[in-house]
Design goal:
The structure is a homodimer of 188-residue chains. The first copy, chain A, is mostly helical. Helices cover 59% and strands 5% of the residues of chain A. Chain A contains seven helices and two strands. Chain A binds a DNA duplex (28 and 28 nucleotides) through helix 2 and helix 3.
Chain lengths: 188, 188
DNA sequence: ACCGTCATGTAATCGGTTACATGATTCT
DNA sequence: AGAATCATGTAACCGATTACATGACGGT
C-alpha cells in the first residue's frame, strides 16, 4: 500500500492490465490474470470487480456500462491513471520480497516432529514445484519475447524460482532417504 | 487459514515458537521472530500480542499474567495446542507458494516504460537480495545444525532463493548494459 | 425447454496493518 | 533528573478472502 496515493499493489495490477490490454471488463482482467500474472500474484476474481470501482472514484479509470444485455462494465485508463502507473513503475522498489511459503514454515518447525513427516512434505512439495515449473516453461514458450521482453523475463524468474524450489525439496528427500537416522526421529 | 480449526498461519507461528522456546511473553516471541523466522515471514509485533489471546480462547495455550511490575503475560502451550501443532506439521502442504514480489510485478509491466527505468530497478533489487543473502549466511553460521537440522535447512532455502534472485537481477542489469537498444526504449 | 458452464456481481467477515500511546529501564 | 531506548499494549481501519447468488449463453 502506497501512502502517497492510497493505492495498493492490486490497484497497480489493474492499472497495468488496463494499460496492456486497453479497455476491459472485469472478466477480461480475470482471464488475463489467469493466463500469466496469476501464477506470480493471484487473487480472487471479486477483487477485479471491486478494485476498478475504487480506481474510478480516484479518477484513474473511467467506467462505461452497457445498457443492454449483460450490462457489462468496461473500464478505461485515464491519462492520470497512466501517469500514476508510470510513476510507480519508475520508482525502484525498496521493499524486499518475502517468501511466505507455508511449506517452509512447516519445515522451520519440523525439528519438533521427525524425518518421516518431513519426507512426505518434501516429496509433495517437489511435485508441486516441478509442476509449476512446467507451467512457467509453457508460458515462456507462448510469450513473444520481442514484443514484451520484460514480461518474458518475469516468467523466466518464476521458472528459476520453481526449479530452485523443486531441487531444494528433492535434495531434502534424498538426504532423508539414504542418511536414515542422521536427521533424528523427532519427539513423540 | 485452515477451515477445520479456524487457525491461520500466524497461529501456527505462535504455536511453533511456544513449542520451541517454552513459555514466553509476546516480547520473547517478537525477539525470536526477529532473529530468524522474520526473514521468511514477517509481521508487526502487534500480532504477537493479539494472536496468543485468540489461541487462549481456543484452549491451545494458557495465559498467566504477572500481578507486579510490567504485568507481563506469559503464554504456555497446552497439550491440545501441541497436538494441533503436530497435526498441522504432519499434513503435507498442498497450497503452492506464491512469489508476490512487488519488484517482479513492476518488471511484469515494464514493457510499458523502457530499459532505463528497468535498469535502475534491477540494480536496486540486486543490492537488496545480495544483502539479504548475506543475512541468511550469517544465520546459517549461527544455527546449530545438529540440534535443529531442519531449521538450518529452512535458512538454507532462504539463502538459495536470495542468491537466485540476486543473480537474476544482475543478469538483467548486464544484458541491459551491453545490449543497448536491444530491449527497446519503451513508450513515452 | 433444459442443463451446464460461463460470466458477473454483492455482502459479510476478519486478519493484518497502521497508528497511537504509555510504562519500565538504563545510561549519562 | 532527563533522555533515549526497550517493552507492552490497544483501537480503528480496510483490503482481501469467503460465501452466496443470479443472469446469460451454447449445446442437445
Amino acid at each position: 500500500m502506497d501512502e502517497q496515493t492510497g493505492l495498493t499493489s492490486t490497484s497497480y495490477v489493474v492499472l497495468g492490465l488496463l494499460a496492456s490490454l486497453g479497455p476491459s471488463t472485469p472478466y477480461d482482467l480475470k482471464r488475463a490474470v489467469a493466463e500469466s500474472l496469476g501464477n506470480l500474484w493471484s487473487f480472487p476474481h471479486s477483487q477485479l470487480y471491486v478494485e476498478p470501482q475504487r480506481l474510478a472514484e480516484a479518477g484513474l479509470v473511467t467506467e462505461h456500462r452497457e445498457d443492454k444485455g449483460r450490462r457489462r462494465r468496461t473500464y478505461t485508463l485515464t491519462s492520470r491513471g497512466r501517469r500514476t502507473l508510470v510513476r510507480w513503475l519508475r520508482t525502484p522498489e525498496i521493499s524486499g520480497h518475502e517468501v511466505r511459503d507455508p511449506a517452509l514454515l512447516k519445515l522451520f518447525f519440523s525439528d519438533l516432529v521427525g524425518a518421516q513427516d518431513v519426507s512426505a512434505l518434501a516429496r509433495s512439495q517437489e511435485q508441486l514445484h516441478s509442476k509449476q515449473a512446467s507451467e512457467y516453461e509453457r508460458l515462456m514458450g507462448e510469450s513473444k519475447e520481442d514484443e514484451m521482453p520484460f514480461r518474458a523475463e518475469t516468467m523466466r524468474m518464476g521458472l528459476v524460482f520453481e526449479r530452485a524450489a523443486a531441487r531444494f525439496w528433492r535434495a531434502i528427500s534424498e538426504e532423508l532417504r539414504d542418511a536414515t537416522g542422521h536427521w533424528g526421529g523427532g519427539n513423540e
